[in-house]
Automatic annotation (TrEMBL):
Lineage top rank: taxon: Bacteria
Limits of the Oxidoreductase molybdopterin-binding domain: 59-190
InterPro entries per UniProt: Mopterin_OxRdtase_euk, OxRdtase_Mopterin-bd_dom, OxRdtase_Mopterin-bd_sf
Signal peptide: none
Protein name in the entry: Oxidoreductase molybdopterin-binding domain-containing protein
Length: 191
């Protein structure tokens, strides 16, 4: 009985581990998401249409508003692209149990804060273009904002972000669950 139980647990482990262990990926039959399904090679839990942001996200008039206690600064996508760009290889680690790696390009969040006149280690409130949803507004502790790997991402895999991955801009930070990697970024507020 113990042998059967052990073999069953090992088989289930192999069937699920293929989600994150590349060489056994062909065995991954009970995982919640197929990493290859989705634009730019990453899965998507909530689409732009489901979030009701498609029109606002592709609007050329979009601006990222950065509010500090003393001022507000807005950045167009073009002005963000004109700033020094950084690259971070970071996963989206979903609370549903899947994880997928991506190579993200964009402005280091700490550099954006400095450009707006704020401390790079500030505690932040991030707001999405999405109006309804549990993660429309999230907070980010200062240690994430100061981390050089934390980006206002503008590209994924060397191509502009797809709207399903947060175009025109999203946050990507090491060690934060996927639901806290705010897509369709609208504003960054220094708290």
């Amino acid at each position: 009985m113990l042998t059967s139980t052990g073999l069953g647990v090992a088989a289930l482990g192999l069937l699920g581990a293929g989600q994150t262990v590349g060489w056994i990926e062909p065995l991954a039959r009970i995982v919640p998401r197929d990493r290859a399904v989705g634009p730019q090679g990453l899965p998507v839990n909530r689409t732009a249409a489901q979030a009701g942001v498609t029109t606002a996200a592709i609007d050329p008039a979009w601006r990222l508003l950065v509010r500090t206690p003393t001022a507000s600064t807005s950045f167009s996508r073009e002005s963000l692209l004109a700033m020094p760009q950084s690259r971070s290889a970071l996963p989206i680690a979903c609370v549903e149990g899947w994880s997928a790696d991506g190579v993200w390009d964009g402005v280091a969040l700490r550099d954006l804060l400095v450009a707006a006149g704020a401390s790079p280690g500030s505690r932040l409130r991030l707001t999405s273009l999405e109006r309804d949803g549990a993660y429309t507004v999230t907070e980010m502790p200062g240690e994430y904002a100061a981390d050089p790997l934390t980006l206002v991402a503008l590209a994924l895999g060397g191509r502009p972000l797809h709207v399903e991955h947060g175009y025109p801009a999203r946050v990507i930070a090491p060690g934060r669950p996927g639901v806290l990697q705010t897509k369709w970024l609208s504003s960054v507020e220094v708290l």
